[in-house]
User: Fold this.
Amino acid sequence: MKDLTINGCKIVFSEAGFATLDQYLKDIEHSVSKTIILCDDITHEVCLPRFAERLENLDPQYEIIEIPHGEEYKNIDTCTQIWESLSDIGADRHSLLINLGGGVVCDMGGYAASCYMRGIRFINVPTTLLSQVDASVGGKTGVDLGGLKNIVGLFTMPDMVLVSGVFLPTLPEYEILSGFAEMIKHGLIRSRSHWEELSSSADFDIETLERLVYDSVHIKYDVVLEDPREKNIRKSLNFGHTIGHAIESHLMRTSRAISHGHAVAIGMVCECYLSIKECGLSEDFVAAFKEYICGIYPVVDIDEGELDDIMEIMTHDKKNSSKGINFSLLKSIGDVSIDHYIPQEDIKNAILFYTYQ
Ligand SMILES: NC(=O)c1ccc[n+]([C@@H]2O[C@H](COP(=O)([O-])OP(=O)(O)OC[C@H]3O[C@@H](n4cnc5c(N)ncnc54)[C@H](O)[C@@H]3O)[C@@H](O)[C@H]2O)c1
Ligand SMILES: [Zn+2]
Assistant:
């Protein structure tokens, strides 16, 4: 698993990645005034020991900033607490922040580091499958504001990202499945062989999972490298998200919250259905794909009376423009097509395809 480099940020993997990070810590030892590790209460307990014991050159005097776990804490108030903690600790422009946690810790920690004293160095160590395959590449950092996700933030690069399977065994099945949906998405939009391997088994050992994570990260990396600012092909990463995100928000509003990946899995089924008419995707594949998804993710009942709310959320999504609701769809497995605007009636039918047929 070769290192990947994007805009000066090195993404390193597995045991070799730990060695690279260890060497990096040694190299910068004299230029770093303080090392601070940001984690949530869960990653503090389950991930920090595994992380620290693998690094000989981690400053033994490192400080810890702990935040409560969960998306509801990904906001400017928690960020302010991080800045206050940094200041209390005496962090200066030569300090290093290591973000050890899922997407919440990495997104918020990256943002906090980029603003503190106009920017200090930071390293991301994503510890959930979702953050490894999705948040590890691309430089997006930020926090939520009110009900709006990631509305305040920056594009900014960590010095290094370490992606390692050592953190995955403690992750609940629910979280594993959440990340797995993004991996399926990577296969469907860009690589038939990746999709075939992912769908060939329901259970992977850690070594196989690490390699599949690498392949997924590589796909996202290739896409982001081609289009860092989401002007064209990066939109393909939204496959499954236009409908998935609206369903995710609707279920949250109606107190039936599911994970992000679960919603994306449902969204992919619906958007595959749209791809039949719009892009000529095989009907047989779409039927088989629906069965596959319903076999691994619990089926969610959505009835016709709920469609108006879901449509309303979709219309207000920040990714959609005055031209209508924008979709990235599939021509075939591994071949995506961007910028499709689909009539609302067809979108509703696609959601009903998931629930009823
Ligand atoms: N920057 C990006 O490009 C990008 C991409 C995708 C998602 N995101 C963001 O990431 C967030 C979602 O990420 P997430 O699913 O990792 O959420 P998360 O950070 O809330 O982690 C999910 C839960 O898993 C726990 N956890 C983390 N690592 C663990 C481990 N190894 N063992 C056991 N428990 C562990 C956490 O404490 C938390 O309770 C969202 O805020 C989303 O906006 C960002
Ligand atoms: Zn996603």
